[in-house]
Amino acid sequence: MSEKNVAAKVFDTIMSIPGMNEMVRVDLKISRKNVLLLSHLIEKGLLLENDKSSLLGNITADGLEELKNLSQECLQKAGLVELNDKLLSFSQSR
C-alpha cells in the first residue's frame, strides 16, 4: 500500500472519531493577505476531491461544502469577495 493510501486511511480514521462533527468556535485575527491566501489554498485543495489517494479525496460532500462556506465567510468578513472574484477571473482568462 502506498504512503498516500496509508495517510488517507489514517486521516479517514481520525475523521470518524466520536465528537469530530461537533461544532467549535474559532476566533481568528489574521491579515487580509492571509485570508486571501487561505481562500486560495482551500480552493486548490478542493480540486483534489476526486483524488482518492489524497487526504482530501475521502472527504464527504458536506465537508466540501463546509470548507467552501468557510472560505467564502472569511473573504466576506475581510471585505475581499470582489477582489478574489477579479483575481480568479484574471487567472482563468490566461
Characterise the protein shown here.
The protein has 94 residues and is mainly alpha-helical. The protein has one domain (3-92). It is built from four helices and no strands. It has helices at residues 3-15, 32-46, 61-78, 81-92.
Strand content: under 5%
Give a count of the beta strands, DSSP E runs of length 2 or more: 0
- Give the distance, in angstroms, between the N- and C-terminal Cα atoms: 39 Å
Q: What profile does the largest beta sheet have?
A: none
What helical percentage do the residues reach?
Answer: 55-70%
Taken from the alpha-carbon principal axes, the silhouette is globular
Task: Supply Rg.
Answer: 15 Å
SSE succession: HHHH
Total tally of structural domains: 1
The residue ranges in which pLDDT falls below 50 over 5 or more consecutive positions are none
What's the topology here?
Blueprint: H1 3-15, H2 32-46, H3 61-78, H4 81-92
Q: Which key phrases capture this entry?
A:
single chain, 94 residues, mainly alpha, 4 helices
Summarize the structure.
The chain has 94 residues and is mostly helical. It is built from four helices and no strands. Helix 2 (32-46) packs antiparallel against helix 3 (61-78).
